[in-house]
Amino acid sequence: MDITKLTTKEFKRIMKLLRKKETLERKLGQLERSVAKVVGAGASAVARGANRIARGRSSRRSTGKKFNRRGGLRKVILEQLGRAGKTGVKIKDLANKMNIQRQRLDTWFYQNLKKVSGLRKVGPGHYHLRG
Predict the structure, then answer these.
(1) What pLDDT sits at residue 72?
(2) What is the pLDDT of residue 98?
(3) Ordered strands of the 126-129 beta sheet
(4) Is 101 within 8 Å of 95 (Cβ atoms)?
């Protein structure tokens, strides 16, 4: 929407909607305060959370899967490499598939390239498992 091409009618409509929004926000604030008085201080935190949800704030992206057991990540990576076959798999694709941070996989492959027999680097960020 180009602001310079607004007609006066459209501008007046926008101003009217903005005023209505401000009055509704004031009423919402009054309602939150009255709920807090009735229920206690904890209710305002709940109201703020509800307000945040209503405004549509996105939640944080999860940092990835947690592997509790020692060697859990290794087991999953080798399983995925086995499924990929001769073509192998790229770290970026593997990170998206497993919901793990790419940097974590980069580090794992760097540290385990010589330790895991059959693990070979095909290209930049591209690995496959022989045998």
Answers:
(1) 82
(2) 86
(3) 89-90, 126-129, 119-123
(4) yes
- How many C-beta neighbours within 10 Å does residue 89 have? 21
Structure confidence at residue 68 (pLDDT): 63
Kindly report the number of other CB atoms within 10 A of residue 77's CB atom: 23
pLDDT score at 62: 60
3-state secondary structure of 75: helix
Residues of the chain with confidence (pLDDT) below 70: 1, 40-48, 53-54, 56-68
Residue 59 Ramachandran class (φ > 0 left, ψ -120 to 50 alpha, else beta): beta
In sequence order, the β-bridge partners of residue 128 are 120
What is residue 105's predicted lDDT score, i.e. its pLDDT? 92
Report the greatest alpha carbon distance in the chain.
Answer: 73
**40: enclosing H helix or E strand:** none
Q: Determine what percent of the chain falls in helix, strand and coil, rounding each to the nearest 5.
A: 65, 10, 25
Which backbone phi and psi does 58 adopt, to 5 degrees?
-80, 150
pTM of the model: 0.49
Please list the alpha-helical segments (H only) found in 7-89: 8-39, 41-55, 72-84
